[in-house]
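USER:
Make up one protein:

ASSISTANT:
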Amino acid sequence: MSREGKAQKRASKVRRPSPSQSFNIQIPFKDRHPIRSFHNEHLMLLPSKSLVLGAATLATLVTAQVDTQLTGTWTTKSRKVFTGPGFYDPVNEKMFEPPLTGFSYSFTDSGFYEVAYYRAGANPTDPKCTKGIIQWQHGKYQKASNGSLILNPITVDGRQLMSDPCLYENSVYTRYQQQEVFKQYEVLVNPFDKAMRLNLYGWDGTPLNPMYLAYRPPQMLPTQTLNPTKTASTGASQSSGTTKTKRDVDGDHDGLVRDALSRNAMLKQSAYADRIWWLGVGLTALGGVGYFCF
């Protein structure tokens, strides 16, 4: 038999599967290519959720920017609260109580920000329990692609001073950090006095009290880390919360505490509430006497 005849005879003995049959092809592991293997081809076609989220985050960071319309120092209607050295002294660790409550935000062309808050509230059930809180932060901000503002504070620099005479004999001074997200904002001309106005809306769309342009360029402390620590990061952080480190304001523990909120201001508010209460009692008594006499 010729060579061609023997080859045809061997080929006729090879078993060929029918079209309805299925079979597996076993590929030795060492011969598999990381991209060309069957399993990895499916992975390439169906990217994981983490990859999608990572790409979306990267896209957001790439499109993040600043808005020069925000540049300047803005303050609420009281015009008594301003960012800068008049609110917080980082060298001597002092916070200064403004004459009226309010808040102030400052922004730079290069993407830095600073914020100062002063809040106070009377206790209607006990006028002696007037509370006050001062907060200061700074860091970097960015405008996201969806128009929101994201404020990332320098973790170790934020400060909070809280006064609650009915809970603590002395004010409580702590480090403070809180990332802020504003769903949207508006920079416009106030129709009443033609002043530049900034409207901020919280993460849920709730409007904050409007602020008005006070200084341009902004009045701010240096934008770098002012009080670095050995263990804490000096960069802007996206985590939130308050580092609760209670300290006695009459002492000098850890070199962090010097002054408390002005006790005179707290006493003035309490005394005023007491006078209003006693005036109401006196008028009620006088009305009762007049009712029976006349």
